[in-house]
Structure formats: structure tokens, C-alpha cells
């Protein structure tokens, strides 16, 4: 396919190089001689662009066939696959030698969902060539209701008749659909009014528990301020457990509670937002956004697949290894998995694996392993890793540099990666070992072209920031300021725009992160972490002299927590208790953090794993089912626990424990 010609097609002209390269595997070219025709079953669920030539649409039901419309070069047809699935069947006849580009309707729907400007152009084009604009506007309105859930959500569209009198597309583009209000009313009508929701139950349980601790019989031996502080923490933990409110709302409410009850001054209650670690996460996240948006990571994936053997084994290993190598570049396991999922789906189809076959599921799990589960290797592999590191005592943080973390986690990472990958091949053996065509990968690389200025500069910033992380013990400068400096350089050079910062950066998590740091600071100042660790310390007294047993207990606790809540919630909750437990037993609490991070990769309850959900939805649920990968999930859990136990002697020798 000629890229310049593709960019002249409607709906595609607004795509950049990276977006077009990702779309390329979904496209199919069809060449027709004059008089050749496409039957109705060939037109279903597809959108056809006329790259060259001229096509005529005819009714497939009438005899003789009735001419309906023509599509010339640069135009498209087949929009009924998106507008009205009950429309009568059509046939398309080439009036001249023609070349078509075909895109599945599902892929077009994704474009309409993700890029409102494409949805607007598509709607205008459909309405502009419609003879019955009122009828067509009704169809387009139904399409928007299906495809624009998170693009537009507030304003009602006018009725078709009124819109037809005022003009074709202006009303459609200016006045989107109030879809969420309608869905909310529908959802509410399904349940009796007296039945409380999960959020209401969670808030009630949290309030009762917090009240019992603050004013009731629980914790009567504690100082009153400590009881108030414990009540606030329990309220937040229960709200997270029930998902009663968004995570950042709960965390910020807890900070407000600390200030209102005078347990901390306003400066102390919000001290986490003045912490260098908060700025470290901000800088690393923004750099990761720039790297992903420029296509640098996508280029790395394609080149890795080009280098390794052209087989199922080679390509699955390419996905897994590439994911592990790019982990330090994008501090979001879910974001990396989202990026890798379409590529994984394409490979599965190129290898001719049937949907939900063992080969397709194994390929997806190899990709999930590399992109979504190896984040414990480095502190910036995921945002919660930075959060866990920030909860360590300051003296320990000064010793645990980026390079020391990698050195301590490397043997565990090798064990988990190798054994999980081999288990994937064993539990999900492919039906065949077909090779994948390298033509598609080569075409995608041609679309990307040579490295652009944005990619080169982003790569330079990444390398400089990583070098600063590794050499931190030599220069003594906090890595946060290098990360913020790299972010500012990318903003100054217009690689990071204001729109990207507002849309791509998860500001709600940054609020959650700053609030959690603030709560941890107040809890440490009040020695609440040691008070909470006290009962656990007494219960585990027989094993505190055995470091292997301590690591196993903390690992098992994290596995159990992961069966109830997400890692974003589980990691800080367990870290607050486990860090003083290790310190009181005379061990380096960094081992507790590393244990928690590694054990958090387990997905015995897959629906509580953000990375798993990203892979499931990103591959359009075509590659695997929960039943298929459940045995692998439990095997992975056993491998992680075994790897933790095997790492204890190494950690002791390294003084990482």
C-alpha cells in the first residue's frame, strides 16, 4: 500500500504515522477488473475505500438490480455496516479497473470512539450524500449513541425532522448525545429503590467501623489521637475494598480528615505533594507519555519481532522480551499492555490461530508476561513501584538506587520470566507452529519511516534520565529532578503538548499518590505503622528469626489481598504494615517492598488485574478466555512464591534484606 495515497482517503488523513502503522495490519487490499463485483457477504461488516477506480452500488434483492449510488476515487461505501445492520443487502460492481482498501467495521468503530474529529468527518460525509437526510440523521444518531460513550456525553441532539430543516451535519456535530444520563436511568430502573448499591454498603460499613474505633470500644488502650488516625485509615481501606468511591477521592478525603481533626497541620496533611518522589513520578510519567506518543516503543516492538525467528516460538519470545526491555521506559504496566495488545492480536491472526485456541492464548500470555508482569524489576516499572519505594524510611531509600533495585530483583526476575514463559508453552501448546509473514512488519516499519526528530529526542531524554538514575550514588542528586528536567525539555521542544499532558497523564492517580504519601508521613510521625505491626509482630514472633518464612508470609498476604482488591490499593496497604515488621526484626525493609511488588503480579482473580483486563480488551476478547488461562494464573502464583524463597539467600548476601 502506498502511504501517501492512504493518507488522502477520508477518515485516514488525520492519522499520524504511528496510528497509521498500527492500523495497517487491519487493512486489506482488493483489486478488481471492470465488471467484477463484490457480493453482499463480502460487503458485510466492512468499510471499503476506493483508492483507485470507480464502483457502483446496486440492490441485491431486486431483479433486475437497481442502481443506488456510485463511489469514485477517495470515497468510501459500506457505511451501513456501522449505521444500520438491518439494511437490505447490496452488491458492488467495478465500473473501471479499481483498487479498494477494506477495513473491518470493528476497527472503524474503534477509530470513531477514540478520535471525535474522525467521527465528525464520517458523519458529515454520510449526511452530505444522503437523499433522505431526516432518515439518515436518525441512523447517524444511533451510531453516535453506540460509538461516542467517552467522546461526547452531555448535550441532547435535536430530533431528526428538526435537524433536517436546519441543515445536514451542523446539528450532529455541535450537539452530541446525552447517552450516560439515559444509561443511568436504565440502570437504576433495574433494581428496586430499597436495594442499596455496593457503594452505599461500603460507605456504611466504613462509617460504622471508623466510628467504633474512634468513639466505641475498639482500641480503648490507644491514645485518642491514635484512635482517630486509625479510624481514618480504616475508613479509607474499607472504601477501597468496596470501591465505594474513586481511589483518589478516598485518599484526599482522608487528608482532609487529618487536617479537620487537627491530627496534622494543613502542610503535614498535604506533605506528599511537596515530596520529591511525587515529582519523580510526574516526570517519569510525562516522559513515558512522550515516548509512547512518538511511536518509539512501537518501533522497538516491530524491530524486535523482525530480529527473532519467524515462528510462534520466536515471535512469542520477541513479545515477552521486548515488553521486559521497554519496562523502564513507560511507568505503567497497563499502558504498556494496551500498546502491545493490538500487535499481539495481529501476530495471532498472521500465525493463523483460531480465536481462543491454545496458540492464540499462549501468544497473548507471553505478551502479558513481558509487558504487564515484569514491572518489579525496576522501581519505575509501574507507578505503584515508585509509591512502594517512597514508603521506605529515608535512610533506606538513600541506599536503594535504581541500579541496586535492578541488581536485587534480577535473579527473581529471571526465575519468574523463564519459568512462566516455559509454563505458558507447556500449558498452552499451539496447534501448529506456522511462521508469521514478515511482510506486514516490514510494511509497518516503512510507514513509520526513519526515526523522526521527536523519537530521537525522546530516546536521548530516556537514556539521560536512566543514566542519572543509575549513577545517583555518584552525583548525589535526587533522580526526581532529572526526570522533571527531561519532562520540561520535552515540553519546551513541543514533543509534549498541553493537550497531551491533560489527556494522557493520569492526574487522578497523581492525586492519589500525593495523598497516600501524606497519610504515610502522618502515620509514621504518629508511629501508627509500628502500632499496626505490633499484633502481627506478636503473632509471627516464632518465625521472625527466619527470613525465608517472613518473605513467604508477606508474599502470601499479598496474594490474598490481590484476590480482593487491585494492586494500586493492595501495595500501599501491605507496605505500611510490612516495612516496620521487617525493620523491627532486624532486616532491610527493602526486601518487604520487593516481595510485595513481585507478589502483586499474581492474577489468581484475573478481573482484579488491570494488565490482564487491558490485554483482554485490547485483543477484543478474541485470543483467550478466563477459563483457558486460570491454570497458568495459579502456576504463575506458585512460581513467584518459589522465586521469592529462592532469592532470600541472595538478598542476604547483597544486604538487600
Question: Could you write a compact summary of the structure shown?
Answer:
This protein is of the alpha+beta class and 657 residues long. The chain is built from 34 helices and 8 strands.
Describe this structure in words.
This protein has 657 residues and is α+β, with helices and mostly antiparallel strands. It is built from 34 helices and 8 strands. The strands form 2 sheets. Strands 1-8-3-6 form a 4-stranded antiparallel beta sheet. Strands 2-7-4-5 form a 4-stranded antiparallel beta sheet. The radius of gyration is 28 Å and the shape is elongated.
Mean pLDDT, all residues? 79
- Tally the helices: what do you get? 34
* Assembly annotation: single chain
How many distinct beta strands?
Answer: 8
Q: Which regions contain 5 or more consecutive residues with pLDDT less than 50? A: 149-189
Strand order of the largest sheet: 1-8-3-6
Q: Strand pairing plus helix content: what structural class?
A: alpha+beta
Specify the overall morphology. elongated
Taken as a percent bin, the fraction of beta residues is: 5-15%
The biggest sheet amounts to:
4 strands, antiparallel
Indicate the radius of gyration in whole angstroms: 28 Å
Amino acid at each position: 500500500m502506498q502511504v501517501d495515497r492512504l493518507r488522502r482517503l477520508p477518515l485516514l488523513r488525520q492519522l499520524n504515522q504511528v496510528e497509521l502503522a498500527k492500523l495497517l495490519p487491519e487493512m486489506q487490499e482488493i483489486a478488481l477488473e471492470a465488471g467484477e463485483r463484490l457480493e453482499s457477504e463480502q460487503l458485510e461488516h466492512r468499510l471499503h475505500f476506493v483508492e483507485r477506480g470507480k464502483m457502483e452500488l446496486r440492490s441485491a434483492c431486486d431483479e433486475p438490480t437497481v442502481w443506488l449510488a456510485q463511489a469514485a476515487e477517495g470515497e468510501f461505501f459500506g457505511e451501513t455496516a456501522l449505521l444500520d445492520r438491518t439494511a437490505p443487502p447490496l452488491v458492488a460492481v467495478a465500473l473501471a479497473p479499481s483498487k479498494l482498501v477494506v477495513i473491518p467495521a470493528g476497527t472503524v468503530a474503534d477509530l470513531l470512539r477514540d478520535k471525535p474529529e474522525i467521527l465528525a468527518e464520517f458523519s458529515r460525509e454520510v449526511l452530505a450524500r444522503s437523499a433522505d437526510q431526516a432518515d439518515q440523521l436518525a441512523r447517524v444518531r444511533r451510531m453516535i449513541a453506540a460509538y461516542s460513550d467517552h467522546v461526547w456525553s452531555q448535550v441532547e441532539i435535536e430530533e431528526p425532522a428538526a435537524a433536517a430543516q436546519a441543515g445536514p451535519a451542523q446539528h450532529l456535530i455541535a450537539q452530541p448525545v446525552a447517552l450516560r444520563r439515559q444509561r443511568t436511568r436504565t440502570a437504576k430502573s433495574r433494581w428496586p429503590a430499597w436495594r442499596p448499591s455496593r457503594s452505599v454498603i461500603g460507605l456504611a460499613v466504613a462509617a460504622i467501623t471508623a466510628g467504633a474505633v474512634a468513639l466505641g470500644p475498639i482500641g480503648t488502650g490507644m491514645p485518642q489521637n491514635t484512635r482517630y488516625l486509625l479510624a481514618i485509615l480504616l475508613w479509607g481501606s474499607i472504601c477501597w475494598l468496596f470501591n465505594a468511591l474513586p481511589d483518589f477521592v478516598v485518599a484526599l478525603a482522608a487528608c482532609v480528615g487529618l487536617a479537620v481533626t487537627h491530627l496534622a497541620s494543613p502542610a503535614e496533611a498535604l506533605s506528599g505533594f511537596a515530596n520529591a518522589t511525587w515529582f519523580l513520578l510526574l516526570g517519569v510519567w510525562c516522559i513515558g507519555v512522550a515516548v509512547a506518543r512518538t511511536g518509539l516503543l512501537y518501533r522497538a516492538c516491530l524491530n524486535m519481532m523482525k530480529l527473532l525467528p519467524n515462528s510462534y516460538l520466536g515471535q512469542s519470545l520477541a513479545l515477552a522480551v521486548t515488553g521486559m526491555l521497554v519496562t523502564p521506559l513507560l511507568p505503567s504496566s497497563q499502558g504498556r499492555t494496551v500498546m502491545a495488545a493490538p500487535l499481539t492480536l495481529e501476530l495471532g491472526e498472521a500465525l493463523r490461530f483460531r480465536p481462543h485456541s491454545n496458540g492464540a492464548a499462549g501468544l497473548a500470555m507471553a505478551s502479558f508476561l513481558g509487558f504487564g508482569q515484569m514491572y518489579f524489576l525496576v522501581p519505575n516499572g509501574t507507578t505503584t513501584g515508585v509509591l512502594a519505594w517512597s514508603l521506605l524510611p529515608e535512610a533506606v531509600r538513600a541506599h536503594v538506587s535504581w541500579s541496586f533495585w535492578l541488581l536485587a530483583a534480577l535473579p527473581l526476575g529471571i526465575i519468574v520470566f523463564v519459568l512462566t514463559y516455559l509454563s505458558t508453552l507447556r500449558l498452552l501448546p499451539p496447534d501448529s507452529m506456522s511462521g508469521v509473514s514478515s511482510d506486514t512488519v516490514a510494511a509497518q516499519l516503512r510507514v513509520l519511516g526513519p526515526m523522526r526528530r521527536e523519537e530521537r529526542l525522546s530516546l536521548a531524554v530516556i537514556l539521560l534520565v536512566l543514566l542519572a538514575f543509575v549513577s545517583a550514588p555518584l552525583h548525589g542528586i535526587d533522580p526526581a529532578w532529572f526526570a522533571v528536567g527531561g519532562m520540561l525539555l520535552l515540553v519546551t521542544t513541543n514533543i509534549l503538548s498541553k493537550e497531551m499532558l491533560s489527556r494522557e497523564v493520569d492526574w487522578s492517580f497523581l492525586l492519589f499518590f500525593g495523598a497516600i504519601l501524606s497519610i504515610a508521613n502522618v502515620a509514621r510521625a504518629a508511629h501508627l505503622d509500628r502500632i499496626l505491626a505490633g499484633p502481627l509482630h506478636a503473632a509471627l514472633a516464632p518465625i521472625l528469626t527466619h527470613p525465608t518464612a517472613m518473605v513467604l508470609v508477606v508474599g502470601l498476604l499479598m496474594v490474598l489481598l490481590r484476590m480482593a482488591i487491585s494492586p494500586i490499593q493492595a501495595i500501599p496497604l501491605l507496605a505500611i504494615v510490612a516495612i516496620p515488621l521487617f525493620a523491627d526484626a532486624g532486616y532491610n525493609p527493602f526486601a518487604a517492598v520487593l516481595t510485595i511488588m513481585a507478589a502483586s503480579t499474581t492474577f489468581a482473580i484475573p478481573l482484579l488485574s488491570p494488565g490482564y483486563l487491558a490485554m483482554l480488551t485490547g485483543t477484543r476478547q478474541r485470543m483467550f478466555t478466563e477459563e483457558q488461562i486460570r491454570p497458568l494464573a495459579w502456576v504463575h502464583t506458585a512460581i513467584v512464591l518459589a522465586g521469592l524463597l529462592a532469592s532470600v539467600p541472595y538478598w542476604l548476601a547483597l544486604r538487600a534484606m
